[in-house]
Amino acid sequence: MSEDNGSKPPSPELPPKPGKRLTLGHIADQLGISTATVSLALRDSPLVAHETREKVKQTAQEIGYIYNRSAASLRTSRSQIVGVAVHDILNPYFAEVFSALEDVLEQQGQMIFICNHRDDTKRQRAFVNTLLQHRADGLILCPSVGTSAEEINRLVDQGIPVTLVARELPGVWAPCVRGDDMCGTYLATKHLIEQGHKDIAMIGGRRESSTGRLRNEGWRKALIEAGLDPGIQIDLPELMTQADGRAAVPTILEADPRPTAIVGFNDLVAFGMMTTLRRAGIEPGPDIAITGYDDIDGADARTPALTTVANQPEKIGRLAALTLLRQIAGDRVPNKPIVIEPELRIRESSPPPGVRIGPKLDAD
Q1: Dist. CA 245–CA 277, nearest whole Å
Q2: Which segments of the chain are extended strands (E)?
Q3: Residue 19 has pLDDT above 50, yes or no
Q4: Which fold is adopted by the domain 181-311?
C-alpha cells in the first residue's frame, strides 16, 4: 500500500496565454513610418517607394503579421478579390483562358477565387453568394446553362462589375468576351466540303449555350451554302468531353450512309472519337476526316495531327480581365460582345474522302 503524502500529481502543461493580435501599428512603430504608409505598402501601392515597400513586407514576415483584407476592404471599399467561374476547368482550353486572365489580374494585386460550376446553376449561385459575402470587386463568368439574364443583371444593378467570357447571354447588362463560334465551325465545315466531303456529321455542343448553338449554326450555314441538307446529316448535341466522343462512335459507325467527315464541337470530343475509331479498325484521317475546335496543347502532336480552330484563349482571357478591371476602376463599358476572330489550322486529320471508310480487313 503506497503512502499518501497529500501531494498532487503534476498538472499537464497549460497552453501559453494568447498574445495581442499584431496590427499595422507594430510595423509602423518598428520602422518609424505611418500606419497609412504600411497599409499602402502591403497593397503594393506605387505611392510608396519600392525600398520602403520591401522593408514593410520583410518586417511583416519577420513578426508574423497577416494582412487583414476584410478590415482593408472596409477602409477602401475594395477587397482585391475577383471571382472566376467556368463550367469545366479540366478542359485545357479554359485552363489557358484562366492562366491569361490570372496574369493580368495578379499584376493589379487581385486575388482570384475560382469555381468549376459544371453547368450546375446551384453551384454557380452558391459561388456568387460567397463572393458577395467577401465583398468581391467583380466577377468573370462563363455562365452555366440555365443562367438567366435577370440573375446577372441583379448583380450589375447592385454595382458589381461582371464580365462574361466564352458564352453570351441575350439581354445581359454586362460585356462578353468570346470567340466567333459560328465563323469557326463554318470555316472547318467549308474546308471539309472543299476537300470533297458531302456526308459531314456534327458531334457535340450544348445547344442551350451560345457556344453550342453558334457552332452548330456555323456547320449548318456551310452545308446549306454548298447545297447540302443539314437535316439528313448526323447531328449529336450535348457532347463535351473525350468520354462523350468515345461514346458517340457506335452511332457514327451504324449510320447509313456513314459520314466521311466529322466536325467535332471541341478538341476533346475529337480526341475521344479518334481513339475509339482506331480501336474499331477505322483510321482517323484516311478513313474518316475529323476536325476539332480550340487548338489545345497537343492537338498538333496527335496521329494524325488534328485540324482544328484556334480560339485564341490567351487573348480572350487577357481581354476579359482588362474589361473587368476597367469596370472596377469606374469606367462605363458597353454591354456588347467583344468577338475574337478564330483561325482554321489545317493539319493531317482532314484529307479528301479515301477509298477506305470501313474496318481494315486482314489479307487472306
Answers
A1: 10
A2: 81-86, 111-116, 138-141, 162-165, 176-179, 200-203, 235-236, 261-264, 289-291, 308-310, 337-340, 343-345
A3: no
A4: Rossmann fold (3.40.50)
Residues 271, 307 contacting (CB under 8 angstroms)? no
226 close to 195: Cβ distance less than 8 angstroms: no
138 and 164 Cβ atoms separated by less than 8 Å: no
Estimate the share of the chain in helix, then strand, then coil, as percent rounded to the nearest 5. 40, 15, 45
Identify which of 199, 204, 202 has the alpha carbon closest to the alpha carbon of residue 228: 199
CATH superfamily for 79-179+313-340 is Response regulator (3.40.50.2300)
pLDDT, tens digit, for every residue of 43-87? Answer: 777 778 888 888 888 888 877 665 555 454 444 456 789 999 999
Cite the residue boundaries of each domain of the chain with CATH code 3.40.50.2300. 79-179+313-340, 181-311
Helix (H, G, I), strand (E, B) or coil at 315: helix
Prediction pTM value: 0.77
Percent of all residues in the chain with a pLDDT value above 90, rounded to a whole number:
68
Cβ 339 vs Cβ 178: under 8 Å: yes
The distance in angstroms from the start CA to the end CA of the chain is: 98
pLDDT of residue 64: 67
DSSP character string of 25-53: HHHHHHHT--HHHHHHHHTT-TTS-HHHH
pLDDT digits 0-9 by tens, 77-124: 567 899 999 999 889 999 999 999 999 998 888 889 999 999 999 999
